[in-house]
Amino acid sequence: MSLAEPLRLLLFLLCVMAFVGFNAAYLVWVERKGAGRIQRRPGPTEVGYAGLLQPMADGIKLLTKQLIVPPGADATLFRLAPVMVLAPAMMSLAVIPFSETLVARNINVGLVMVFAFGSINVMAIMLGGWASRNKYAIISAARIVSQDVAYEIPMLLVVITVLMITGTMNLNDIVRQQAGGFWHWNLFKLAANPLMPVTFVIFYVCMLAETNRAPFDMAEAESELVAGAFTEYAGMGFGVFFMAEYANIVVGCAIATILFLGGWQSPIGLFPGLFWFLLKMYLLCFSVVWVRWTFPRTQFYGLLNLSWKILIPVSLATLMLSAVLIKVVKL
Amino acid sequence: MNLTLQQLADQLSSGFARETAGGVVRVVDYARTGCHLEAAVWPSAVVCAAELLDQRGFALDTITGVDWIAEGEMEVIYDYFHATAGWRIVIRSRLPRGNPEIPTISGVFPGADWHERETHDFFGIRFLGHPDLRPFLLPEDADYHPLRKDFTA
Amino acid sequence: MIAPQAICPEGTRNETFVLNLGPQHPATHGVLRVKLTMDGEYITRAEPVVGYIHRMQEKMAENRTYARFLPNTSRIDYLSAMAYTHAFVAAVERAARIEVPARAEYIRVVTSELNRISSHLVWFGAFLLDLGGFTPLLYAFDDRERILDLLEGISGSRLTYCYYRFGGLCNDIDEDFIKGTHDFVARMRPRLKMYRTLVTDNIILRKRLIGIGPISQEMCRRYGATGPVIRGSGVAYDVRKAEPYSVYPEFNFDVPVFPEGDSMARYLVRMAEMEQSLRIIEQALDKLPGGPVMASNVPRVLKLPAGDYCCAVEAARGRFAVRIISDNKEIPYRVKLRTPSFSNLSLFEEASQGMMLPDALALMGSLDLVIPDIDR
């Protein structure tokens, strides 16, 4: 019917926005509790039971703060940057299949769309740093651009490797191909490419670097550049950047789950669905939090060396291997 | 360092024999005063003393100023130590209080840069040839010298 | 990993900008301002500006009796307060020829070494925090809490102790302290092993520190650097062995020395020193004699004979020396405090030339600075 489709779309998009908002808020809680327990302390416990209302309290605090635009800063870009960081993450979630039928828009080029939106993220942070007219912010913005550009390349090479095996860019189809037990997941498709686990590790590392998470958070290294690109943002402007970081983590983990871990397929072959997708995605999110609080930060040139000198050659090698196997073995 | 303390004292004595003031290089009681050799020199000889000690591998420990207001003099005390031999040498120099000037040793020991700036801050002793004698611990616009005995807040 | 070198092709103009690592900054432990002149990511000149916490301790010493200056000594370097009080007290005792009873000396050694461990734990946590590893700080502070509780039991303070007096200690230790210290030593050894596995052997930390911030022996000598800085450059200079004081000659301990001179060497020196301090504490508690903890016939108000008296100790950061010039009055004529962080920081300008910012901050963290120590 002519009215049902737009209505369904609207409903899905509202749900996606609510999902992003809920995640941004409660991943913060997970991070703070996780950080606390890793550091042998309880984390937030005061506000609500086990600190569950802490994100609400933080949100209210940020909303009540004055939104300061520093004098001399480019006002339009300064205000636009946080929005431009959050919006692509939300839009990427429109193509992610949460279960067989729970997809906002099942686009045939879904995979490309997600990465296209991911690139806007880089530009937005750079604009935020540049528009702040603050030395720390500009240094940080420059670092973020070089880091993100460097890590997008191996990430895309790895995705192309997976693409060659799946043959389709439609995310729901990719998940359907991994039906059966967990040995059918792309991670374990060693017949197609013996280096599949390596490509997963590369993707994971690139995802950490793209979202500027430790140990790759040189750009906002607190002990050097105060808050990096976000130094001049106060109140909800900073809050939106913060939410966007977690939204990006959610998108990154969701893509990792879909491409490598079977999406909404269950590991035992029975009762596939939303539950498995959320479980896998949140386990990956927790591991991202875990890595942050365990390792110190790499130096900036160490980070770039890792990408240009190690990850890109290795991902090119897996790509070649995949291509050769497909052509020769005729899978 | 394979010299005995007395040999070192003799070498240093002959090294700045012309320029020492009264008393040459004495071996002192370490248990009482905390140093092994002590010398009192003219202000013009401090650079020579620093160079002699630098050649023998001594390190600069600290530079102290003292305001002997009753005698109308200020004293600058240089502490040197040798990290492997464990010896401590003290070089003292007295300056007239009305015009306290002494050449800088920061050309020989770069560490003296900060020590001399601090001594200038506290006493007003001018170190001739010092690259940058701005206030170090006191505020940038300070024109008083707190450790002088006639300083009133 | 070796840091990349800046490439400046002929004919390009070098534009530098000034970045201020201001007095309020998460990485400069305390109120230190560093004016960095930077060429892109490289530092062309790093000028430390100090004096933000200058309290003129040396003038305060000229205004009060020797006993009234004792609490000041703890506040010069608050993390290593026992050793600083020890230096002042030992200088006065040397001048006034006061014999300190053996039991007091042994307890002084035990408390000083406990203080050294707690100071190194703070350095360890803060250094890792600078490098981005947030978790070791809390583990280190957990161990440190136990030391603080032990020392609070005997002295009443957690941080700025004023436990030593001229001629001994203000009060004796009790069974709780001895048992607690034994427990602490037993607990600390496996913890140090854990730090080694989890932190020292971490590949990211090693890449961050190995080869970074080399300080040669020559540079240490010209600037008068002491403590873990000079021991991390291959020179075995430790005041406890070079100018023995108190009862240190009776103990069997090594002075850890690493020849490489980079930040990793200084890091390893401090980690090894904690190990050695545990050894000293065990030996001291085993050999602890009985008897009084205070010399008899120490006058209430001391008057030192005229002259120059100097005493040095090995504090956690290096050599701390006190020079007292007395003119036979109850208040000193001049007290000079030679602090280790002052000399250690003076070499930062030369050592950080041409380094990148994160490496320079790693170097500064490895120098272990406490700013009140510099400013006094």
Q: What's a concise summary of this model?
A:
Chain A is 66% helix and 0% strand. By secondary structure, chain A is mostly helical. Chain C has one domain (54-375): Cytochrome-c3 Hydrogenase, chain B (Orthogonal Bundle).
Provide an overview of this structure.
The complex is a heterotrimer of chains A (331), B (153) and C (376). Chain A is mainly α. Chain A has one domain. Chain A has helices at residues 4-38, 54-63, 75-92, 110-131, 135-166, 171-176, 196-210, 222-225, 236-260, 274-294, 300-329. The mean pLDDT of chain A is 84. With 153 residues, chain B is of the alpha/beta class. Chain B has one domain: NADH:ubiquinone oxidoreductase Nqo5 subunit (Beta Polymerase, domain 2). Chain B has four helices and seven strands, in the order αβαβαββββαβ. In chain B, the strands form two sheets. A five-stranded mixed sheet of chain B has the order 1-2-5-4-3. In chain B, strands 6-7 form a two-stranded parallel ribbon. Chain B is globular, with a radius of gyration of 16 Å. In chain B, 47% of the residues are buried. Chain C is of the alpha+beta class. Chain C has 15 helices and eight strands. Chain C has helices at 57-61, 66-74, 81-96, 102-130, 135-155, 175-200, 203-209, 217-223, 228-231, 239-242, 263-286, 340-346, 348-351, 357-367, 371-375, and strands spanning 17-21, 33-39, 42-49, 164-165, 168-169, 307-315, 318-326, 334-338. In chain C, strand 2 and strand 3 (42-49) form a beta hairpin. Chains in contact: A-C, B-C. The A-C interface holds A 35, 38-41, 135-136, 139, 214-215, 217-218, 221-224, 226, 293-302, 305 and C 1, 3-4, 17, 19, 25-27, 41, 128-135, 137-139, 142, 202, 204-205, 207-208, 356-359, 361.
List the keywords.
heterotrimer; A: 331 residues; mainly alpha; globular; C: 376 residues; alpha+beta; Cytochrome-c3 Hydrogenase, chain B; three-stranded antiparallel beta sheet; 15 helices; 8 strands; 48% helix
Describe the protein's topology.
The complex is a heterotrimer of chains A (331), B (153) and C (376).
Chain A: H1 4-38, H2 54-63, H3 75-92, H4 110-131, H5 135-166, H6 171-176, H7 196-210, H8 222-225, H9 236-260, H10 274-294, H11 300-329
Chain B: H1 5-15, E1 20-27, H2 30-33, E2 37-41, H3 46-55, E3 59-68, E4 73-81, E5 88-96, E6 101-103, H4 112-123, E7 126-128
Parallel strand pairs in B: 2-5, 6-7
Antiparallel strand pairs in B: 1-2, 3-4, 4-5
Chain C: E1 17-21, E2 33-39, E3 42-49, H1 57-61, H2 66-74, H3 81-96, H4 102-130, H5 135-155, E4 164-165, E5 168-169, H6 175-200, H7 203-209, H8 217-223, H9 228-231, H10 239-242, H11 263-286, E6 307-315, E7 318-326, E8 334-338, H12 340-346, H13 348-351, H14 357-367, H15 371-375
Antiparallel strand pairs in C: 1-2, 2-3, 4-5, 6-7, 7-8
